[in-house]
Design goal:
This protein has strands spanning about 1-5, 10, 15-25, 30-40, 45-50, 55-60, 65-70, 75-80, 90-95, 115, 120-124. It is an all-beta fold. A hairpin with a 4-residue loop joins strand 7 (about 65-70) and strand 8 (about 75-80).
Length: about 120
């Protein structure tokens, strides 16, 4: 299974970006999905997740601004990011997993596969 993240870039505070992640291999519709991010000098952190059954979870700092979605026909997952802040600057990673439960949705190591990351830089 391979994941290819894209859509990052340099944007100004308050603007929007949509990250995409194309997944090849496996049965995409059965995967639970997630986005994680890692800022310079910080540990990787959970951003958003969407279980196979549609349940979603977001870290508090992005609630109401970010939306995770999927398109099973395209084997793709997305992260719509609105009202971007400088603290959203990070490398964003997509991940998929087939054995995700509610208590593990926010844990990177619970996912089976992850992508190479895409850089998001928000300037003020």
């Amino acid at each position: 299974v391979q994941l290819q993240a894209s859509g990052g870039g340099l944007v100004q505070t308050g603007t929007s970006l949509r990250l995409s992640c194309l997944v090849s291999g496996g049965t995409f519709s059965r995967y639970s999905l997630a986005w994680f991010r890692q800022a310079p000098g910080k540990e990787r952190e959970f951003v958003a997740a969407r279980k196979w059954n549609g349940d979603t979870a977001y870290t508090d700092s992005v609630k109401g601004r970010f939306t995770i979605s999927r398109d099973n026909a395209k084997n793709a997952m997305y992260l719509q990011m609105n009202s971007l802040k400088s603290e959203d600057t990070a490398v964003y990673y997509c991940a998929v997993g087939s054995r995700i439960i509610t208590t593990t949705m926010r844990t990177f190591d619970a996912y089976d596969f992850s992508g190479q990351g895409t850089q998001v830089t928000v300037s003020s």
